UniProtKB/TrEMBL annotation:
Annotated pathway: Glycan metabolism; L-arabinan degradation
Pfam entry (one): Glyco_hydro_43
UniProt name for this protein: Arabinan endo-1,5-alpha-L-arabinosidase
InterPro entries assigned: GH43_arabinanases, Glyco_hydro_43, Glyco_hydro_43_endo_a_Ara-ase, Glyco_hydro_beta-prop_sf
Signal peptide range in chain numbering: 1-32
SUPFAM superfamilies tied to this protein: Arabinanase/levansucrase/invertase (SSF75005)
Gene that encodes the chain: abnA
Site features described as Important for catalytic activity, responsible for pKa modulation of the active site Glu and correct orientation of both the proton donor and substrate, chain residue numbers: 165
Residues annotated as binding substrate: 50, 127, 162-165, 182-184
Record-marked site positions (Important for substrate recognition): 291
Active-site residue numbers: 50 (proton acceptor), 221 (proton donor)
Protein family membership: Belongs to the glycosyl hydrolase 43 family.
Keywords from the UniProt entry: Glycosidase, Hydrolase, Signal
GO biological process terms on file: arabinan catabolic process
Length: 332
């Protein structure tokens, strides 16, 4: 979601996948998909950028996305969405050293653990490596209920990564991890202390998960790790965001038996060598779908993302994910 460079628009790759008989927001899928699906039906407040979603114990969906002081939306059915205020109604002054004084905060990641909502988010400016990831917690997730818990990690020209686009992942052993990154040397992973949600003081390694060494721009960002079966799936975005209908973002995936990697794509190419299997790309009036979030739900694993319309407006995209016989995901 950072660093804009002019590129040509990518044409969506056609794919063929088997039917699963699941439904998207109550609508049955076709017997086979021959192209990337359009987003499922969403209504109400549908403008969003870098969405992240958690489901509350009462069944309500709570979505946080990039915006001034971090915007909140809610839905009871995953279709109709309404605005629900901001995380920081009174501002977040601890972030302004990284935002140049602006209130716009990026790429939140919301999840629920130990009866609390955890929110990781980033503060930066476009094209800058002067970035930071912060943590907030809340008992309810409601606007104004959040407590600032501190800085998790920051970046500058003294390191080879960019501290934006955080995602909390808990492994099969209960260990907490934060993946993040954009451009420069790609996607990274650090250990967290589950007692605080902040960076571990016992394991301070910064591990490399994905990079695009042959790409002039190094354009891989917006990571999210989803654990399913015996694999950890690392979803990322390749190419360029934030250019309206000219955006070329696309959702990619690789997997590993270990949360720390190595991750490989369907063809066995390491993600640290530029590998990645495409899950969703531009097609028709859907431009630059990316910044994925994956939420396991009662009907399926749900893929949330943003995309741009023909007019350049950012919109919330929702599709379901199914898994082929070799345990690779596809959107429908």
């Amino acid at each position: 979601m950072i660093y804009m460079t002019r590129t040509g628009r990518r044409v969506a790759t056609l794919v063929a996948v088997a039917a699963t008989g699941l439904a998207l927001n109550g609508m049955a899928t076709a017997s086979a998909a021959v192209a990337y699906p359009n987003p499922g039906r969403v209504t109400g407040s549908t403008g969003a950028h870098d969405p992240s979603v958690v489901k509350t114990p009462t069944g309500t969906y709570l979505l946080v996305h990039t915006g001034n002081n971090l915007s909140i939306k809610t839905s009871t059915d995953r279709i109709a969405w309404r605005n629900a205020g901001t995380v920081w109604p009174n501002g977040a002054p601890w972030t302004t050293a990284y935002t140049g004084g602006a209130a716009n905060l990026w790429a939140p990641d919301i999840s629920r653990h130990n009866g609390q909502y955890y929110l990781y988010y980033s503060a930066s400016t476009f094209g800058s490596q002067r970035s930071a990831i912060f943590l907030a917690t809340s008992p309810t997730g409601a606007a104004g209920s959040w407590t600032h818990r501190g800085l998790v990690i920051e970046s500058s020209s003294s390191v080879n990564y960019n501290a934006i686009d955080p995602n909390l992942a808990v492994d099969a052993n209960g260990l907490w991890w934060l993946t993040f990154g954009s451009f420069w040397s790609g996607i990274k992973l650090i250990r967290l202390d589950p007692a605080t949600g902040l960076r571990s003081t016992l394991d301070t390694a910064v591990r490399a998960l994905a990079t695009r060494p042959s790409s002039v721009s190094g354009s891989v960002e917006a990571p999210v790790i989803h654990r399913r079966g015996g694999f950890y799936y690392l979803f990322t975005s390749f190419d360029f965001c934030c250019r309206g209908a000219d955006s070329t973002y696309r959702v990619m995936v690789g997997r590993s038996a270990s949360i720390t990697g190595p991750y490989v794509d369907r063809n066995g190419v390491a993600l640290t060598a530029g590998g990645g299997t495409e899950v969703l790309a531009s097609h028709g009036s859907v431009h630059g779908p990316g910044h994925p979030a994956v939420l396991p739900d009662v009907d399926a694993d749900v893929l949330f993302y943003h995309y741009y319309t023909d007019t350049g407006a950012a919109r919330l995209g929702i599709n379901l994910l199914a898994w082929d016989p070799t345990a690779w995901p596809y959107a429908y």
